[in-house]
Write a structure and sequence with these properties.
With 164 residues, the chain is mostly helical. Strand 1 and strand 2 form a beta hairpin. The protein is 38% helix and 3% strand. The chain has a domain of 110 residues.
C-alpha cells in the first residue's frame, strides 16, 4: 500500500514469516495482534460469553497476557516460546525480549518473534476454540453457543475441525 509520499510504508508491509504460514494460522496470529482474538475478555466484551473467566484454568480474566505468560494449561509451551524468543532476540539486532519485561503487544510487533509465536499457536488450542458452551439462562437450563460451536442446522463462527 502506498503512503502519502507515494512510497510503500514499512508499517503496511505484511510480516514475511506470517505470510508464509497457512491461512488459518496466519489468521489467528493477526486476530491476536489486533485484539480480535478468542479470549474470555474479548468474548465477554462481544457478549458471546457471560464473563471473561479462562476456560482452561478458571482464572478470573482470560487475556492475551494470561494465555502467553501465566495459564497453567500451557506452561510447557510458554517455556518453549519464551526460551526461543530470548534466543532469537539476543542474536539479532534490537531489544532483547524476556517474559518478565515484554508485553504481548511488543512480542507480536517484533518480527524476530513471529516464528516462535506461530509455533506457540500451532502447539496450543489458543484462539482456535472459545471453550465449552456456557449456559445463557441457568433458570431454563438452555445451553449457549460458544463461538466455535455449531447451532442447529448451521456451522459455528469459529474454525472448523480441520487441522492447521
Amino acid at each position: 500500500m502506498l503512503g502519502l509520499t507515494g512510497r510503500s510504508s514499512d508499517r503496511q508491509k505484511p510480516n514475511p514469516v506470517v505470510a508464509k504460514a497457512n491461512k488459518r494460522l496466519a489468521s489467528r496470529f493477526y486476530q491476536l495482534r489486533t485484539g480480535h482474538f478468542l479470549t474470555g475478555q474479548y468474548l465477554a466484551w462481544t457478549t458471546r460469553r457471560p464473563d471473561a473467566t479462562c476456560w482452561w484454568c478458571q482464572y478470573s480474566i482470560q487475556t492475551r497476557e494470561h494465555l502467553f505468560k501465566n495459564c497453567p494449561q500451557w506452561r510447557c509451551q510458554q517455556k518453549t516460546l519464551w526460551t526461543t524468543v530470548l534466543k532469537e532476540t539476543t542474536k539479532l539486532p534490537g531489544p532483547t525480549r524476556r517474559r518478565d519485561r515484554t508485553s504481548i503487544a511488543e512480542l507480536l510487533a517484533d518480527e524476530r518473534c513471529s516464528q516462535a509465536v506461530l509455533q506457540f499457536l500451532t502447539t496450543t488450542d489458543i484462539g482456535r476454540t472459545s471453550g465449552p458452551p456456557v449456559a445463557e439462562d441457568e433458570g431454563r437450563g438452555q445451553r449457549g453457543l460458544g463461538v466455535g460451536s455449531a447451532g442447529p442446522g448451521g456451522a459455528g463462527l469459529g474454525e472448523g475441525d480441520g487441522g492447521d
